[in-house]
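re: ur question from the group chat, yeah i did fold both. here u go
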Amino acid sequence: MKDTNAIAAPVIEARGLGLTFETADGPVHALKDVTLTVEKGDFVSFIGPSGCGKTTFLRAIAALEHPTEGTLTVNGMDPDAARRARAYGYVFQAAGLYPWRTIAGNIKLPLEIMGFSRAEQEERARKVLSLVDLEGFGRKFPWQLSGGMQQRASIARALAFDADILLMDEPFGALDEIVRDRLNEELLKLWARTEKTIGFVTHSIPEAVYLSTRIVVMSPRPGRITDVIESTLPKERPLDIRDSAEFIAIAHRVREGLRSGHGDEV
């Protein structure tokens, strides 16, 4: 019974979360009264205008920012404890690969820091390179790969220590639409294979609708959740599903949520 309850517990849970930055020009209210539960295996996208707190919330989950109000737990722990327990991998907007290390060397870096044996590092690097379709590129340097391939390598690095949660901050925002579409498809396949819980920040309505089981719509600062949309799309999603009436209806609801959010008090 105890094991069943542990599995059913929320992976991420925020209650009345607020975060205020103190600056020389006065306080900046980044988040206010954010309440959200993320279950195991969810793919949750956060969408809203620039400065609405999407990235701030993701960073709070990763213990890179610290809330000033409310509560936040990750795998039942406070975010700092979850970070020490290596509960998540984090993918930033830029690939952030070290140019003097090979792709495999970049992937193995966090494993080196964590004290994994060389054999385990090699095995994990091989496994995650296969997951992101970069077999044979381990000995290449970042400058020898395209932007899309570099970002896949960044995802591989975040997957290397096999955390249950993957946090992604606009990982495809700087890529052209064709590459972005391909990586969206690959990310869905990766999610299906690994069954990770994914938190994904984006500015793109089609990307949010295509990828997610749930879409969290946020208002301008101070960031509040104005809508949480449960996707009715099937788990397997070819790109042409974006032309379906169901997809268009969900996108319309996201767009309406973004418009109505602009009426919130700033």
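okk and heres the other one u asked abt
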Amino acid sequence: MTGPMLSVSELTAGYGRITVLDKISIEAGRFGNVGLFGPNGHGKTTLLRAVSGLLKPRQGRIVFDGEDITEATSRAIVKKGLIHVPQGNTLFPDLSIADCMALGAYSPRARPLEDENREKVLALFPKLRERWRQRVATLSGGERQMVSIGTALMSHPKLLILDEPTLGLAPKIKDELCRSVLEISKSGVPLIVVEQDVEFLLELSQHLYFLNHGQVETEIKPGESLGHSEIMAMYFGH
């Protein structure tokens, strides 16, 4: 790939009279995985919502896989292969795991690969096979997150966005999920990940953006190194 799969240019967005993102620019999919980090409430989730069509930008441009998607609906963006897993296990609680997986494969580009992708998801998350017919509401938080990511993978993403995938999970389940996300990356799916676990983000990402007050305060490009202590200094000041 000569250019980025995703390019966000001079994007401004917010809610009501509040501006959250102020002319922010990032790119993803050219140099490997992208990690987004920074204090809570400073624009990370808002950026992801704008990119995936859940929030209409006030100005700026979003290009995905060579197409301008700034004004596209979230449904159209999903069909193009840009898949967003939001915070908080927001899947349909009354559906079974099997039903969620089938929904994930609804788009024309994903449907022919449904069987193949289902086996990949179940190899990645063996617990889901054991609970295949259970309702999502009966699962633990970690299992629901596995269903969320698994459903996204059923959509056969060209680019997968994960917003704090380990938020609120017990340490053992969190470690298990982190290993699974690394496996997804190794399978060739490029990722954009928002995560507060600095060590995991450094292990996963080749390209990092530190967001502060709705802007990119620091960009760490591939080949540049940044230690845990330097990141902590960004969060809490020098």
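fwiw on the second one: The radius of gyration is 17 Å. Residues 171-186 form the longest helix (16 residues). idk if thats what u expected
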